[in-house]
Amino acid sequence: MAKPQSNFDGASSAIIPSTHGGLKQGLEWLGHWLKGHDLGTEADDRALLVFEEIVTNIINYGFDDNGEHTIQVNARMEGNDLTLTFDDDGRPFDPRNAPDYTRPDTLERAPIGGRGLVLVRRAARRLDYRRTEKGRNLLIVTLARG
Amino acid sequence: MDIQVTLYEEIARVKLRGRLDSPGVDQIASKFTASVVPDGRNTVVDLSEVNFIASMGLRLFISIAKSLKRQNARLILFAPQTQVSEVFNTVLLHDLVPIVADEAEAVRFAAV
Q1: I need a labelling partner for B99 at 20 to 30 A (CA). Which of A7, A79, B34, B80 fits?
Q2: Cα dist. A28→A15, B21, B83 in Å?
Q3: Which B residues 68-87 touch A at CB under 8 Å?
Q4: What residues in B contact A49, CB-CB < 8 Å?
Q5: Phi/psi at A139 (5° precision)
Q6: By the 8 A CB rule, do B77 and B110 touch?
Q7: Distance between CA atoms of residues A129 and A96, nearest Å
Q8: Looking at the partner chain, which of B55, B56, B62 has a beta carbon nearest the beta carbon of A110?
Q9: How far is the alpha carbon of A26 from chain B, nearest alpha carbon, in Å?
Q10: For A130, which DSSP code?
């Protein structure tokens, strides 16, 4: 299970392994956190979709080695916004600069993957990214709460 | 996530229930693929009880559609719920896989 860390200001965070098992743990953690905030199915699904796509991307493409890594995740309500923060020590990756999805002309030519970030961009109100001085990726995704 | 496969002479009908997120796809991908790909049957997929999909679910559908296409068969999806339909529209899935309103239309599509 992810290690949850609740703060007094209403935020909540967890540290999950950068594995597919870690993704499952993270989804359970976020689902539990969302249930406590009663935002409604639409907002819950938007948050869970973004969480899954970002964490999957980090797990699949973030690391050059087979070592153990963790992802620090945080969920917070701020006014009318729900923000999800992802903090990892993978290779630098700014999803705002990822190439746009290219519409394939046939099923045969269509790639099987590569659509996760399209869904994130569509769901998010804003994406903020910076590479920290400690060499970590810090991605903040802002979503509408309703 | 739950999967129910019914095989007719030329068509496979697949009923999915639950969330097609990464853990959900892990639960059904092997059975789904093994049930329809080796025989190359036209396959209609009932999504009326799938209430969530993420990109791993899209990967599953596109992968199976490509495998069936190589055998001159088709994958047809029908009756997606709101969130699922929005995801399909965002990634223009209808360019690759037919998405129709109900089973009767899906079966007609499979027979074309």
Answers
A1: B34
A2: 13, 12, 19
A3: 69, 83, 87
A4: 52, 54, 87
A5: -115, 125
A6: no
A7: 8
A8: B62
A9: 11
A10: E
Tokens standing for residue A137 = 């990726």
Angle between helices A41-61 and B82-90 (to 10 degrees): 40
Cα dist from A46 to A143, A144, B61, whole Å? 8, 9, 21
The rounded mean pLDDT for chain A is 91
pLDDT at A10: 44
Chain-centre distance for alpha carbon B82 = 16
Helices B22-36 and A20-35, interaxial angle, to 10°? 120
CB contact under 8 A, B69 and A42: no
DSSP track, A76-112: EEETTEEEEEEEE-SS---GGGSPPPPPPSSTTT--S
Query: How many Å separate Cα B5 from the centre of its chain?
Result: 11
Model confidence pLDDT, tens digit, residues A84-106: 999 999 999 999 998 888 888 89
Closest C-alpha among A138, A145, A133, A132 to residue A54: A138
Instruction: Say whether pLDDT at A7 is over 50.
Output: no
Q: How many CB atoms lie within 10 A of CB A4?
A: 12
Span B80-108, pLDDT tens digits: 999 999 999 999 999 999 999 999 999 99
Contact A119 B92 (CB under 8 A): no
Cβ neighbours of B98 (radius 10 Å): 18
Residues of A in contact with B97 (CB under 8 A): 107
List CB contacts (< 8 A) between B64 and chain A.
Answer: none
